[in-house]
Every structure is written in C-alpha cells, then in structure tokens.
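Predicting holo structure, zinc ion bound.
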Amino acid sequence: MPTISNKVIISPSIIAGDLSTIGTDVKTYNSDIIDILHMDVMDGNFVPNLTFGPGFIKNLQKHTKIPIDIHLMIEKPENSLKQYMELNPKYITLHYESAKFHTRYLNLIKENGINAGLALNPSTPIDAVFDLIEFCDIILIMSVDPGFYGQPFIKQSLSKIGRLKEHLLLNNFNNVKIQVDGGINEKNIKDVVSAGADIVVAGNSLYKEGEINENALKLKKIAAS
Ligand code: DX5
Ligand code: ZN
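Done. Tokens:
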C-alpha cells in the first residue's frame, strides 16, 4: 500500500453514484483512501430534490465500516434528528438556513457523542456562524447551491473558506474542521485545500468515470502536491 497523505479527508457523495447498486459497490471502497462517506439527505422542500432517509443509510451501514457523514438538507431537522443520531454517524451537519435553534440541536448531537456541524449556503455570509463556532465540530461551506451533484464550483467560495480559516486560527478553534462541498475536482481541489479545507466532499469527480479508489487517491495526491 503506498503512503497516502492524510492531509485532506475525502468524503464521496454517494448520490453521484448508482444508488441501486451502492450496497455492493461500497464493499470495494478502500478505507485507507476513502475516509468517510457523505450522505446527502434531501427532502424536496429545503432543496428541490429528494434522495433518501435514515432507513437507507442504516441498510448501507451493513455493507461498510467506513464512517458516515450526514449532510441534512431538510426543513425542520429537529423532527428527524433522533433517527439520524441512532445511526451513530461520525458527523451530522444541519443547515444554518433550515434551523431556528442552532445551539440546541448542535448540543444535542454532541451529547450523543457525534460530531456536530453547521452548513452554509453560498448566499449566507460566513460571519453568520462566527458566534456559533464553539458549538460546532465542523463547518460545511457549500460551494454550490445545494440540491444536485454535478454543478460547477462557485469560485467566490475560496475567499469564504479563507475568511473562516483565518477566524478559526485567530480564535484558537484548533479542533474545528472546515468541510467544503460542491463542484470539487482535480482542477480546483488544490485551491480549496490551500484556502483551508480539511474535508473535501466530491461527487461527480469521483463517480463520473474510472474507479473510485483511484480517483480519490488522485484527488488526495493533487491536494498534497
Ligand atoms: C449538493 C450536495 C453535494 C453534491 C456533491 O447539494 O450537498 O454533496 O452531491 O457533488 P459534486 O461534487 O458533483 O458537486
Ligand atoms: Zn453534501
């Protein structure tokens, strides 16, 4: 096994794959390369697309030991938070724009031993979450409007990542990770990681063609180069 850079964590967005065969496909994922698995939960309400819920994720977990990273793109996440927490994922991230009582839900997630995250749409200014960072283990910066995989990366996201990174460093939030999600590929991953991303979500660039482990390793190598 070649030495793989642990600098950036890669989280494949499985909706960009074939969900009808993902239970079998996931068995081929090399956990030395694929660090976590990104679950895009969409409700057809917060975003104009519908994917899957906790039942699907629970079944998928029977086929892999790779930790799960749940990205909730749903209205009123508090109504189903318990079901997602019961899955014992590594991360649960809810949208800043979809929840009213952020600290209540983030604390609840943390109390259940799960890393808690807040996600921001491209139109939400980064300083909206500055007063909430101490309640978070992870901040997810969306680099596309949520709803679909395969959209082009919004390049203004780079300065947003940079401003968050600067804020974390200045305020000694050394354990809070930055996740970036949307349109990340071989051409822009280096910029995304240089700006401050710790975790990169990738859909289209991993699933469009070729083999997922090779594609993910290639992204990691470019990020570390
Ligand atoms: C968008 C989702 C993303 C998306 C990533 O709403 O949250 O996770 O599936 O896929 P790509 O990398 O193709 O933009
Ligand atoms: Zn996502």
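Residues 13, 38, 40, 71, 181, 201 surround zinc ion (ligand 2) (CB under 6 Å).
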